[in-house]
Design a protein that fits this description.
The protein has helices at about 25-35, 75-85, 100-110, 170-175, 195-205, 245-255; strands at about 15-25, 55-60, 65-70, 90-95, 115-120, 125-130, 140-145, 180-185, 210, 215, 220-225, 235-240, 260, 265-270, 275-280. By secondary structure, the protein is an alpha+beta fold. The chain starts with 15 loop residues before the first strand and ends in a 7-residue tail after the last strand.
Length: about 290
């Protein structure tokens, strides 16, 4: 029997994991740490997030984005998130051409609550209530319209980079040797159905599955069982690094900064999550 899809039974649609947001207490400290270990840089700071009492920094991982947000007021939602859980995962932001239509279906079927929307000629963005999906993050499903701006385009214009976002594509290409490959979310304490969690994401957002993983076009999202005393949230992020020498350099710098845990096959502890680095092929700027 075919698995159920969201709403009226629309098919799965190619979806990119385009951006991850982490909430941190000290923005500049964490930016400095990340850019001292990974060959990336601050691509953009978005003044628009001040409406949520935040300031931020967006760093490219190839054609995808790592966003760090930090509250400027104790009343900010991100401040409450950090108070409950400490620094760590905050949002998973996906790109799908049919995002707006999917929102209409989800609202009609009442399967997920919308907490924020932003529709423009070139883009559409929707945030859903984190309580309606497993994983302890705010899911956002966005579309970027126009030629050369689809899910399949690695170095494409992205609305989170502001009104002149096309100007920042060159900055993405400078980090072509990096790639966002995977995220693992921890379920709430007592929750053990990791495959069911992935199915929930598939059924709501129309993302394909591969075994018990959510299969984005560029990355995988997995889940681990909940742990007593720990809230749900992002457990780890996997970043691909092109070439053995560059990978070894990243690990060497992580050791020097005192954030490396374990041996050669260990991980870095940064921004409240584990970071795994794996070797990929030589960097390319083709897509």
């Amino acid at each position: 029997m075919a698995p159920p899809s969201f709403g009226s039974g629309a098919p799965e649609e190619p979806t990119r994991l385009r951006q991850i947001a982490l909430a941190v207490t000290d923005l500049e400290k964490e930016v400095s740490l990340l850019t001292s270990i990974l060959p990336t840089h601050v691509l953009y700071r978005d003044p628009r997030v001040s409406v949520w009492n935040l300031h931020n920094a967006l760093l490219p991982l190839g054609g995808d984005i790592l966003e760090l947000v930090s509250p400027t007021s104790s009343s900010a939602p991100a401040a409450r998130h950090i108070k409950r859980n400490g620094d760590g995962g905050y949002m998973i932001i996906m790109q799908q051409q049919g995002a707006k239509e999917r929102r209409e279906q989800l609202v009609k079927s009442k399967r997920a609550r919308v907490i924020w929307t932003s529709d423009h000629e070139e883009s559409s963005a929707t945030q859903y209530h984190p309580a309606d999906v497993p994983g302890g993050v705010i899911p956002e499903l966005d579309a970027q319209y126009g030629a050369g701006k689809g899910v399949e385009v690695r170095f494409g214009a992205w609305h989170a980079l502001g009104p002149r976002h096309e100007e920042y594509v060159g900055g993405m290409r400078e980090t072509a040797g990096l790639g966002l490959l995977g995220v693992v979310c921890r379920l709430k304490a007592g929750e053990v159905d990791v495959e069911g969690a992935a199915r929930r994401w598939r059924d709501l957002f129309g993302v394909a599955m591969s075994r018990d993983l959510v299969a984005f076009t560029n990355a995988r999202l997995g889940f681990v069982r909940g742990v007593e005393g720990k809230g749900a949230g992002i457990e780890s992020i996997t970043v691909g690094v092109a070439g053995r020498e560059k990978l070894e350099d990243v690990i060497k710098k992580a050791r020097e900064k005192g954030v490396w845990r374990g041996g050669t096959h260990g991980w870095a502890e940064m921004c409240g999550v584990k970071w795994h680095f794996v070797q990929t092929g030589e960097e390319t700027s083709k897509l």
